[in-house]
Specification:
The complex is a heterodimer of chains A (332) and B (279).
Chain A (H helix, E strand, L loop, with lengths): L1 H30 L4 H11 L6 H14 L6 H15 L13 H36 L4 H13 L4 H15 L16 H37 L3 H9 L3 H39 L4 H10 L3 H29 L1 H5 L1
Chain B lengths: L7 H19 L35 H37 L1 H16 L2 H12 L5 H12 L1 H15 L2 H8 L4 H37 L10 H10 L8 H32 L6
Classes of the chains: A mainly alpha (332), B mainly alpha (279).
Chain lengths: 332, 279
C-alpha cells in the first residue's frame, strides 16, 4: 500500500507542477507593461516584411488568436488549457509558415533529450563513482586533490564552461567544428559518427560541471557514512573492501543523490538551453532562441510549454525510480 | 557570531570577494566616463597603462566596463538573495510550525517552483519586452524561483525544532511562540541562512548572466553577462580579442569560486561548532 500511495502522490504533484507552470506562462504576457500583439507586430515589420493595412489587420487578428487574447480572461485561460491538454496543438509556426509547431518541436526534442540524458547520466555515474572512492579513501592525496579540482569546477556555470571549451577546442585548436553540421541519413554510420563528433563539446560542458557537484556531494556523504558503526562492524566481520564500499557505503549514500538529481533537473535543463544556443545544437534551446529572434510566438509558446512538461516528466521518472534504490518504500 | 577557528576556504573566498566588492562597489564612482558609451577611445587596443584591460570593438575601456558590469551583477545577486532568503525563511518556518493547510500549500508551491525551469519563463518575458526588461523585473522573477530552497530547509529545521528539548523548556517557562522564535530558533538557523544567502547570490548572478549571454537580459545596462554578449556579437572570438571576451569570463569564474568557497566555508564552520566535524 505504501508503494501505491507513493506513486499516487507523485502523480498528483506531477499534474500540479505542469498546471502551475502553464498558468505562469499564461499570465506572463498579460502582466507585461506592453501589449504583446503590438510589440510582435512591430518586430515583424522591422524585419522588413512589407504589409498593407489589410494584411496588418489580418496579422493582428492571427496574433490575437495566437496569444489567446480573445474573450474574457476566464475564456482565454480555459481556451489555453484546452489547447495544451486536449487538442495538443500550438498552431502553425509564424516564421516557417505553414509548418506546424508540433512538427518542429518533434524534430528538436530528440536532440535535447539525447544530449541531456547522456551527459547527465555520464556525469552522475562517473561523479558518484569517483566521489565514493574519494570519500571512502579520504586520506589518499589523490582524493584531496580531486576535491580541490571539483571545488574550482562546480561553481562555474555551463555557458562559461561552454565558452572556454569553444575558445580552447574550436578557436585556438580547431579540433571540433565551428558550425553544427550533420552528414548522412539517420541509420548510417556516417550519421552517427557526425552526431557524436558534433555533440562532444556541448555534452562535455554539461558533464564537467555536473561531475564537480556529484564528486563533492558523494565524497561528503560517503566519508561520513564510512565512519558509522555498521561499517566498522562489517570491517571486524571481515567483509572485503569492495563489498563494504558497495553494499554498505554506496547503498546508503546513493539515496540522497537520487533525490537531488530529481531536484536538479530544472537547473540542468536551464544550463543545457544556453549551452545549445552557444553551440548552435539543433535542440529545444536553439529553437526557442530562434523563435525569440524571429518573433515566432506560436513556436515560442510551444517550446516553452514542452520544456516545462519535459522537465516535470523527467523529475517524475526519477522519483518513480527511487523505490528501486530504497527497499523501504518498495516492501512496506 | 564567534569564530574560534577560521577556515582556509572561507579566508580565500572572502579575499577574492573583497576584491570584487572594491571593483564593483567602489571603483565605479571613480570612473572617468560612462563606461557604456561607445567610441570614447580607439577600438581594440591591447592592454596598456592607460587601458588596463585594453579597449573593446565599440571603443569602450574594458576595465571600466568590467567594473560597471560587476556593480550591476552584484546588485542583482544581493537583491535576489536578500528577498529570496527572507521570504523563504518565513514561509518555511510558518509551514513547519503551523502545519495543516498552510503547510501543504507552501510545500506544494515550493516544490512546483523548484521543478519548473526558470529560464524558459525568463526567455518568454524578455522576448516580449525586447531587451528592455529592467534588471529589477528580472530580479523579481529570480526571487520567485529562489525562495523555495530556504523554505524547504527551514521547514525541516522547524519540524525538528518543535520536538527539541530546549524549545519545550522555553515553552513551559512561559515564553510565547514569537519569543521562542526570536530567542531560541533564529540563532540556530542563522548560519544556514548565511550560507544559503551567499549561494543564492551566486545562482542569481549566474541566471541573469545566462540570460544576458544570449542577449535576453537588459541590453541598455551592462552586466557581466551582457559584456560577454556584446563581445560574442562583435566576433571577439573570431577576431581573437581575448582581453574583451576573457575579462568578464575570468571575472565570473573568480567571483563564483569565491562565493562557493564562502558558502561551503560557512557551512563547515557551523557544522564544526555544533560538533559534527567537517561537513
Amino acid at each position: 500500500m505504501q508503494f501505491a500511495k507513493f506513486v499516487v502522490t507523485r502523480l498528483i504533484a506531477y499534474v500540479l507542477v505542469i498546471w502551475i507552470g502553464i498558468t505562469v506562462v499564461f499570465f506572463v504576457p498579460r502582466f507585461m507593461p506592453s501589449d504583446p500583439v503590438e510589440s510582435m507586430l512591430g518586430r515583424i515589420m522591422t524585419r522588413g516584411a512589407y504589409m498593407d493595412a489589410e494584411q496588418v489587420e489580418a496579422m493582428r487578428a492571427t496574433l490575437t488568436q495566437a496569444f489567446g487574447l480573445e474573450g474574457t480572461l476566464a475564456d482565454q485561460y480555459f481556451g489555453f488549457l484546452h489547447r495544451i491538454f486536449v487538442t495538443r496543438e500550438f498552431g502553425p509556426s509564424l516564421s516557417l509558415f505553414p509548418t506546424p509547431v508540433n512538427e518542429l518541436i518533434g524534430r528538436a526534442l530528440p536532440w535535447t533529450l539525447g544530449l541531456l540524458l547522456s551527459s547527465t547520466i555520464i556525469a552522475w555515474i562517473v561523479g558518484n563513482a569517483i566521489g565514493l572512492l574519494a570519500g571512502y579513501k579520504s586520506r589518499w592525496v589523490s582524493s584531496r586533490a580531486l576535491e580541490i579540482i571539483a571545488i574550482f569546477v562546480y561553481p562555474i556555470p555551463y555557458y562559461i564552461t561552454a565558452l572556454i571549451l569553444i575558445i580552447l577546442f574550436i578557436h585556438l585548436n580547431p579540433i571540433f567544428p565551428l558550425f553544427f553540421s550533420i552528414r548522412g541519413d539517420p541509420p548510417s554510420l556516417e550519421f552517427i559518427s557526425s552526431v557524436i563528433y558534433n555533440s562532444v563539446l556541448p555534452a562535455a560542458s554539461i558533464v564537467i560541471v555536473g561531475f564537480g557537484w556529484w564528486v563533492l556531494s558523494m565524497k561528503a556523504l560517503s566519508s561520513s557514512i564510512s565512519e558509522e558503526d555498521f561499517v566498522y562492524f562489517a570491517k571486524l566481520k571481515g567483509a572485503g573492501e569492495g563489498r563494504i564500499m558497495t553494499a554498505y557505503v554506496l547503498r546508503n549514500a546513493i539515496l540522497p543523490q537520487v533525490t537531488v538529481l530529481a531536484l536538479q533537473i530544472g537547473v540542468i535543463f536551464n544550463g543545457a538551453l544556453i549551452t545549445e544556443i552557444l553551440f548552435g545544437y539543433p535542440g529545444l534551446g536553439t529553437m526557442t532562441y530562434n523563435a525569440v529572434l524571429q518573433a515566432d510566438y506560436n513556436l515560442l509558446m510551444g517550446t516553452i510549454t514542452i520544456s516545462i512538461i519535459a522537465v516535470a516528466t523527467s523529475t517524475l521518472v526519477i522519483d518513480l525510480l527511487y523505490p528501486f534504490f530504497d527497499p523501504r518504500i518498495r516492501q512496506r | 557570531m564567534m569564530m574560534r577557528r577560521t577556515s582556509p576556504r572561507l579566508t580565500v573566498g572572502l579575499i577574492i570577494l573583497a576584491a570584487f566588492i572594491i571593483l564593483g562597489g567602489v571603483l565605479p564612482f571613480f570612473s572617468p566616463e560612462d563606461p557604456r558609451s561607445w567610441i570614447k577611445h580607439p577600438r581594440n587596443l591591447p592592454p596598456s597603462a592607460e587601458h588596463l584591460l585594453g579597449t573593446t570593438n565599440l571603443g569602450q575601456d574594458t576595465f571600466w566596463l568590467l567594473s560597471y558590469a560587476t556593480q550591476n551583477s552584484l546588485f542583482i545577486g544581493l537583491i535576489v538573495a536578500f528577498f529570496a532568503t527572507l521570504i523563504g525563511v518565513f514561509a518555511g518556518l510558518a509551514s513547519g510550525f503551523l502545519g495543516g493547510v498552510p503547510d501543504r500549500v507552501i510545500t506544494l508551491l515550493a516544490d512546483v517552483f523548484i521543478v519548473v525551469p526558470s529560464l524558459p519563463i525568463l526567455i518568454l518575458m524578455s522576448s516580449l519586452l525586447q531587451g528592455r526588461a529592467s534588471l529589477l523585473l528580472i530580479s523579481i522573477i529570480l526571487i520567485l524561483f529562489n525562495w523555495p530552497w530556504p523554505a524547504r530547509q527551514m521547514r525541516s529545521i522547524a519540524l525538528s525544532m518543535r520536538e527539541r528539548q530546549f524549545v519545550n523548556t522555553a515553552r513551559f517557562s512561559g515564553s510565547s511562540t514569537l519569543q521562542i522564535l526570536a530567542e531560541e530558533i533564529v540563532p540556530h538557523i542563522f548560519s544556514w541562512s548565511m550560507a544559503n544567502f551567499v549561494n543564492t547570490v551566486l545562482v542569481a548572478i549566474a541566471t541573469e548572466s545566462g540570460l544576458a549571454v544570449i542577449g535576453l537580459s537588459s541590453l541598455e545596462e551592462a552586466t557581466l553577462g551582457t559584456t560577454i554578449y556584446w563581445a560574442l556579437q562583435h566576433q571577439a572570438l573570431l577576431g581573437r580579442r581575448w582581453w574583451w571576451i576573457g575579462s568578464p569570463v575570468v571575472a565570473i569564474i573568480l567571483l563564483f569560486i569565491a562565493l562557493f568557497l564562502i558558502s561551503t566555508g560557512i557551512s563547515s564552520l557551523s557544522a564544526e561548532r555544533r560538533g559534527h566535524g567537517d561537513a
